[in-house]
Amino acid sequence: MRIRGMQSRISLLHDAVNSGRLKEMQMLLDEEPDKKKKIVLAKDDSGVGLLHKAVYYDLQDICKWLIEKFPHMVSLRDAVEMDGNGLNTHCVVKGQEGRTAYHYTPMCKDPQAIQKLLKNAGADPSTLDVHQHSAKYYTDHKQELELPSSQKSTPNKRTSMGARD
């Protein structure tokens, strides 16, 4: 039963980020203070992390809070199996791009501000995804940046974020 409860909490966390609800996300994390550092790293069913979503959907308040409280998140990659050299060990499947949150910064209104936050927390702007592209490449190829959506947690459209807490 504990695993099912944890999976439910992770799903609720992702739903809160998808909808831009910072206070709800904070409350959910505060309910498990001893497990916070692990839960915050949990990915959704598509292998996407909370910080990846916050950057992609340009949720600056959530980005700032996550980076401030959990700077270790900046090096987390989306779902892909990597070998010890940082290379993809399997064929590329859509949604398994090996990207860090930094790769998604071109989607932000003010990418430099989010990039600065990420770099100050230890993000490496030169990190390559499975296509051997860094975030700089995606500045001119935004159409190639698509965040995979999970079956259980569908993000709101970027243009209709609604009210945020």
UniProtKB/TrEMBL annotation:
Residues 148-159 have a biased composition (Polar residues). Transmembrane segments: none annotated. InterPro entries: Ankyrin_rpt-contain_sf. It comes from the Eukaryota. Residues 139-165 are annotated as: Disordered. This is Uncharacterized protein. It comes from Aromia moschata. The lineage of its organism: Eukaryota, Metazoa, Ecdysozoa, Arthropoda, Hexapoda.
